[in-house]
Amino acid sequence: MSPPAGGRHLGWRWSLGLGLTILALMSACSGVQGLPPAGSSPAVGGSAQPASSKPEANSTTEAATSAPAGAISVDMTGPPPKFVPADLVAPAGDLVFFLHNKSQGIHTLAIGRELHKALVSSSQVLHGQAAVFTVHGLQAGHYVIWCTIDGHAEEGMVGTLTLN
């Protein structure tokens, strides 16, 4: 495509047309519009699972002021950042955690089969705040828990979760 004859006054129109053409081609090549790129993080409360796969687990996080009956209480403390208690045991099934951030930082609680490969993760819990983190769909077995904030796991904010 070459710019139309006629000088500078049509140059911006040609540039706009070229830009729109490139955008249209990129949209057509992507297959599905409106989906985040593969591997991107979902917004809070969202899910990044492909339509063809069934997630192993899902979760929600809601602000709270007190622990619901039967919740597993986990304090987020520091420095250095850590979970108290760090090693948790619970029956398999739906899990309800009461996360209380007693430190000066921001924390999360992620659960996975391996460190840094989360199956689920809570939203951020701000300094002095608390949240109820509800998890559905985890199978019986051994899991790693950690804080996803940069450097916190490396500083010791890790633990275990055993579901019977």
Summarize the structure.
The protein has 164 residues and is mainly beta. The chain has one helix at 11-30; strands spanning 58-64, 72-77, 82-84, 87-90, 95-101, 110-114, 117-121, 130-136, 141-146, 158-163. The radius of gyration is 23 Å and the shape is globular.
Notable features of this structure?
mainly beta, single chain, 164 residues, five-stranded mixed β-sheet, Immunoglobulin-like, 2 domains
Description of the structure:
- It is a single chain.
- The protein is mostly beta strands and 164 residues long.
- The protein folds into two domains: 30 residues; 106 residues, Sandwich (Immunoglobulin-like), CATH 2.60.40.420.
- The protein is built from one helix and ten strands; from the N terminus they run αββββββββββ.
- The longest helix has 20 residues.
Low-confidence stretches: 6-10, 18-52
Largest sheet, spatial ordering of strands: 1-8-5-2-3
The helix tally amounts to 1
CATH class of the largest domain: Mainly Beta
Order of helices and strands: HEEEEEEEEEE
Based on CA atoms alone, the radius of gyration comes out at 23 Å
What overall geometry do the principal axes of the alpha carbons give? globular
Largest sheet: 5 strands, mixed
CATH superfamily of the largest domain: Cupredoxins -  blue copper proteins
Annotated CATH topology of the largest domain: Immunoglobulin-like
The overall number of domains is 2
Number of strands: 10
